[in-house]
Amino acid sequence: MRGSVVKRGKSWSVVVDTGNDPLTGRRRQRWHGGHRTKRDAEAALAEIVGSVNRGAYVPKSRQTLAEFTADWLAAIEPTLRPATHYSYARNLRLHVLPYLGSTPLAGIDAGALNGLYAALLADGRKDSEGGGLAPR
Prior knowledge:
Elements lengths: L2 E6 L2 E10 L6 E9 L2 H17 L10 H12 L5 H19 L9 H14 L13
Antiparallel strand pairs: 1-2, 2-3
C-alpha cells in the first residue's frame, strides 16, 4: 500500500492508495486531513499503513449497520438453510438494529457493542415476559 503527505492550505493531509476499483479499473484514494504539522501527518500515514498491513484498516464510510446487514444477508442467503437465514434476520431485526442500525460502520467500536450488550441485558426480551436477556 502506498501513501503520501500533502499540504492543503494551512493543514496537512494524508493520501492513501487503496487499489483499483474492480469495476472501472480506476485508482481509488482515501484522504485523511486536518493535521496541523507535516510531522503529525507523517505519523498518521505510518499508523494507517501499519493498520493496512495488519489487516485492521477500515476506510471511513457513511454506510450504516442496517444497510450493511441487509447487503450481507442477501449475499449469504444462498449458502444458508432457510431456517438459519430467518434466524439471522430475526435476531438482527429484534436485537441489534433497534440499537445500532442507524450507526455508521465506522462508528461501531467496543464501546458501542458494550452499550448494545448492556441494553440487551437490561431490556432485550421481546416476548410477553419482558426484562432482559439472560447473561451467558
